[in-house]
Specification:
The protein is mostly helical. It contains 16 helices and two strands.
């Protein structure tokens, strides 16, 4: 921070001491737009929280969640005041068991009170989530983001329905599955996958798309072939591989039967626009996946 920014920072601190939280928040937020500093982010979040601007406090906090590594209790309070129950669970479940045992009951208690006090709101939120498949991709993604404010039991009800709904976009299904993995859902759930068949999955026992050993192997092959010779194509193909893995999960092991050949087909198409391989299984899946990916671009 330069001298003028330091002056503003000290002013915001003093306003916080005087419990003039809204004035302090305005200064901290202005500084946050100018300087990337953990003290400013922490100050802004606390000032917003104490002036009851919970949604904005949440937005500031989650964009820099690492700042609160030593004050997880406060971060959880911010998330719960903004009624983001699902992502709060995912956040807590990344930590050791003693932290989970301490903080998860707080989420459960807050959810329970919210359901009792705002029954109509929860019903409306669930209805909006449930009918997600009636809309185009962008609106589906918005409704999934909004469902973060559903209590767990209601979110699971909606998620189960949407994973079987043929009108839920495949990318959105992948996002729902990823959320269920993050919150360590132990239920066996039916999912209509990209092969247009239902598969039974237990999200907590399923590796995320990025953790799959076959995807990691494909990444290694791509980097070995292109890192030194064509980093631009490498970046594009790694992004494409990420999207493929997201769309394929939980079928990655069934589809990518030969990582070397999979990468060879990707590279051939990227450089010539053609599909070339004696492995008809890989050609079929590359075409199917790229049809989905092309629609996203």
């Amino acid at each position: 921070m330069n001298s003028e920014q330091m002056k503003q920072f000290e002013k915001a601190k003093q306003l916080s001491i005087e419990n003039k939280w809204r004035d302090a928040a305005a200064i901290f937020l202005d500084l946050r737009d100018q300087v990337d500093d953990e003290k400013i982010i922490m100050g802004a979040t606390k000032a917003l929280y104490n002036s009851n601007q919970f949604k904005l406090a949440y937005q500031v906090a989650v964009q820099s969640a690492q700042v609160f590594a030593n004050d997880l209790d406060f971060l959880v309070q911010v998330c719960l005041k903004a009624q983001h129950f699902i992502s709060t669970r995912a956040l807590i479940l990344r930590y050791p068991e003693e932290v989970v045992n301490k903080l998860l009951p707080l989420v459960q208690e807050t959810e329970s009170k919210y359901r009792q006090e705002f029954k109509a709101t929860v019903q409306n939120q669930l209805r909006a989530f449930y009918h997600l498949g009636d809309y185009p991709l962008v609106e589906q993604q918005k409704r999934l983001l909004a469902a973060d404010q559903l209590p767990l039991a209601d979110f699971i009800v909606g998620a189960k329905f949407l994973l079987r709904d043929p009108f839920t976009q495949q990318l959105v299904k992948a996002d729902i599955l990823n959320i269920l993995q993050q919150i360590k859902c132990q239920e066996k759930i039916a999912m209509l996958c990209i092969d247009e068949k239902e598969h039974q999955v237990i999200p907590a026992k399923l590796p995320t798309a990025y953790q799959n050993s076959l995807i990691i192997e494909c990444q290694k092959i791509l980097k070995a072939q292109l890192e030194q010779t064509d980093p631009q194509i490498l970046r594009a193909l790694l992004i494409q591989l990420d999207l493929q893995s997201i769309l394929l999960n939980p079928l990655i092991d069934e589809v990518i039967t030969d990582p070397s050949e999979w990468v060879k087909v990707m590279l051939k198409r990227a450089t010539t626009g053609e599909y070339s391989s004696e492995n008809k299984h890989i050609i079929h899946w590359q075409k199917k996946l790229n049809k989905f990916i092309d629609k996203l671009q």
